[in-house]
Amino acid sequence: xxxxxxxxxxxxxxxxxxxxxxxxxxxxxxxxxxxxxxxxxxxxxxxxxxxxxxxxxxxxxxxxxxxxxxxxxxxxxxxxxxxxxxxxxxxxxxxxxxxxxxxxxxxxxxxxxxxxxxxxxxxxxxxxxxxxxxxxxxxxxxxxxxxxxxxxxxxxxxxxxxxxxxxxxxxxxxxxxxxxxxxxxxxxxxxxxxxxxxxxxxxxxxxxxxxxxxxxxxxxxxx
Amino acid sequence: xxxxxxxxxxxxxxxxxxxxxxxxxxxxxxxxxxxxxxxxxxxxxxxxxxxxxxxxxxxxxxxxxxxxxxxxxxxxxxxxxxxxxxxxxxxxxxxxxxxxxxxxxxxxxxxxxxxxxxxxxxxxxxxxxxxxxxxxxxxxxxxxxxxxxxxxxxxxxxxxxxxxxxxxxxxxxxxxxxxxxxxxxxxxxxxxxxxxxxxxxxxxxxxxxxxxxxxxxxxxxxxxxxxxxxxxxxxxxxxxxx
Lengths: 223, 242
Fold this sequence. Notes:
InterPro entries (chain B): ATP_synth_b/b'su_bac/chlpt, ATP_synthase_B_chain
Strand order of the largest sheet of chain A: 1-2
Strand content of chain A: under 5%
Low-confidence stretches of chain A: none
Helix content of chain B: over 70%
Organism (chain B): Thalassovita mangrovi
Family (chain B): Belongs to the ATPase B chain family.
Helix content of chain A: 55-70%
Number of helices of chain A: 7
Keywords (chain B): ATP synthesis, Cell membrane, CF(0), Coiled coil, Hydrogen ion transport, Ion transport, Membrane, Transmembrane, Transmembrane helix, Transport
Largest sheet of chain A: 2 strands, antiparallel
Subcellular location (chain B): Cell membrane; Endomembrane system
Oligomer: heterodimer
């Protein structure tokens, strides 16, 4: 096991032919916690909100406000994807603080899955907002000779989106592991606190960049 | 570095489930609540706006009524002023008319009273004149023998001392017998005889003086015995003033 790559997925068990990694299990745990918490917290949402509902409203309206500022239009059609992206990334990145858990974003599959979804969603939103022909025509602007560069930029920015998240979270996880290995259990606590900040910042960056890409696709901003 | 495609696929599906999960249990309920709250806010705002409009309308109505009342009050004041002016004018005219009538009536009354007073005064003057005439003419004769007899009777009625004074007065400076008209020779003789008998030694002279009007006066140097009409009138007037 000492020869195994730390970047390789940590497979916990198999469901038939399907290997189930730690990242997947952590994601399921996050999903289950979210489902239970939201089911309880918003069991009977009322206009006169309680403290938990008010906090959730603040979170949602804050995300919506940020999206509105970037998109320049009604954020609610984009909120399920982009808001979920931010909330999931925050929870996934903060999974590092749970003993025995590792952030799913510290392995390349999860950032890749998210970047893939953002890549596909931006095209879907762009085509829906501008129409197929007009959307594809924007790759020829400002000059048709720039088509290869435009296509390449689409791929590279998606790749950079993936690598940025993965690199930050993976490196942080390595730093924590190295510090624990070298200094014991108490010393890494400041690094864990720093990890919380990094996790929230990376979630914010990933979400903002995804929003910018989608905004460019729907014609709200220039990417 | 290797990629586990199974994990990538599962994570893709997992994230799509997370999207559905959050959309179903977070965004939709929150959006419904927010929309309900916004609807309530809009309703409250509309209600407030309706109330504002109603208040504005009420205020406009109040101002209109106030202006209407002010106009009515102004018109009423103008009407009252006009009415008061006309009443005052009518009262002035009535007062002037009444005053004119009073003045006219007073003048008429004064005229009547003046005429009556003048008539009364004339009557009184006539009565006085009659009295004066009666007094002037009624106390014995003013000429002739009657007059002389009356003078003699008067002189005889005087006391001894008075007579002595008159005699001494007449003896030194004379006695003048004054009449309104000149006496005849016979009359002068009768007068001289009568006076000489009573004032012996006195120089007796005769004079005429129209001012005594009638009768005669015995003018001593220091006394006068008057039997003239003028003297009678004077005494009568003094009595009337009395």
